[in-house]
Design brief:
heterodimer; A: 191 residues; Alpha-Beta Plaits; 4-stranded mixed β-sheet; B: 180 residues; mainly alpha; Rna Polymerase Sigma Factor, Chain: A; Arc Repressor Mutant, subunit A; 0% strand; globular; binds zinc ion
Chain lengths: 191, 180
């Protein structure tokens, strides 16, 4: 490691390279020059690493992975329910119900559905009582009060054409953009 | 990829939607593949490990506790796969410690201590970083190349943030001495 005329070393500058320069560095021409040199070299090498990374076909690779994971389909819970239209006893998977909930959220200008889970909470057949977990992030100009009512409506509209139900509990978790929970609320509906 | 998009794709993948998972694979593979390359001299090996990491990720999604931490979770899984493979190849009955492995350069040790090269002469920059111990290479690729935060890189490599900072500084110093 090189020692600069001001007494600091290359290492001192390197340790804070991703941070803004401190007061000494701002006023010291040697440190300033060293930072520039290191940044420049760093930029040069990272650019070169990207350009010497061999070509890769992301779509083809992804298709290959999808082919492989098809053997390990995740276990989907099946539910005995009553068809809302015909009244007949049928079975639906969690994923079918989730897809309907996602479709209801898809046009929402105020909220984005990050993750959802659904399960029956009663032991009778057909199941009539449901608990839905909805993790949602909301648009900056919206509010929890607005979202609350909407989320319950979306879930109700999503499942009502598919299954007969009596009680609905929605655990609404409001999240930030990265999916970190901020607030959670329990909503209830009855049919 | 936008964080909001990533959050939704991770959520949908956890719900069991392979299409969403495919989008994650397409978006995150280029970076993951570069990270895996820090463990091997050949791109073929890196790609193989990347593929295994994705398959294991799909199988283990149910155990992901924090959706927001998906990326570091995925990279950690890839790191374990790479270390296991190196261990298998070492074909050693003794357990090889992670710490020891990470001090080891990949087999085709080239640079940087020995020769300094002119910028124009560099054909493959990966040859330059291959001369660094694996731990330094990992820190460099995660933070300097892929823009991960020190905190994320620390989570991936299972060390403290200050260790990442130190390793990155050493990597940058070695590289800067290797390239004139
Ligand atoms: Zn100075």
């Amino acid at each position: 490691m090189k020692t600069l005329p001001c007494g600091r070393t290359t290492e001192d500058v390197l340790l804070n390279l991703d941070e803004p320069a401190d007061l000494h560095e701002l006023q010291c021409r040697w440190c300033h020059a060293e930072r520039q040199r290191l940044k420049d070299q760093n930029g040069f090498i990272t650019q070169l690493l990207h350009s010497s990374t061999p070509e890769h076909q992301p779509e083809a690779f992804s298709q290959r992975i999808l082919g492989k994971i098809a053997e390990y389909s995740p276990f989907q819970r099946m539910w005995d329910v009553q068809d809302a239209g015909t009244g007949l006893a049928i079975r639906v998977s969690s994923l079918e119900l989730i897809k309907a909930i996602r479709a209801a959220f898809s046009e929402s200008p105020t909220s984005q559905l990050n993750y959802t889970e659904i399960k029956a909470t009663d032991t009778q057949i057909p199941h009539l009582n449901w608990r839905v977990q909805c993790h949602v992030s909301m648009a900056g100009d919206s509010s929890v009060q607005v979202i609350e009512q909407q989320v319950l409506d979306y879930v109700r509209c999503a499942i009502s054409p598919l299954i007969s139900w009596r009680e609905l509990v929605v655990n609404l978790v409001i999240e930030d953009l990265h999916g970190e929970a901020i607030e959670s609320i329990t909503l209830r509906g009855e049919n | 990829m936008e964080p909001t998009r990533l959050t939704v794709l991770v959520g949908r993948s956890m719900e069991g939607d392979p299409e969403a998972f495919g989008e994650l694979v397409t978006a995150l593979t280029p970076g993951l593949r570069q990270y895996c390359k820090t463990f091997f001299s050949s791109w073929h090996d890196a790609e193989d490990a990347t593929q295994d990491a994705w398959i294991r990720a799909w199988q283990s999604l149910g155990s992901l506790r924090e959706r927001a931490a998906f990326k570091t979770w995925l990279y950690r899984m890839a790191r374990n796969i790479c270390l296991d493979r190196i261990r298998q190849r070492a074909n050693d009955q003794q357990t090889v410690d992670d710490e020891v492995l990470e001090q080891t350069p990949v087999p085709d040790r080239e640079l940087p201590e020995n020769v300094a090269v002119q910028r124009g002469e560099i054909a493959d920059a990966w040859q330059i970083i291959n001369g660094l111990p694996s731990a330094l290479r990992q820190a460099f690729v995660l933070v300097a190349l892929q823009g991960m935060s020190y905190k994320e890189a620390a989570l991936v490599t299972n060390v403290s943030e200050s260790t990442v900072r130190g390793r990155l500084a050493r990597a940058r110093n070695a590289i800067s001495e290797a390239v004139s």
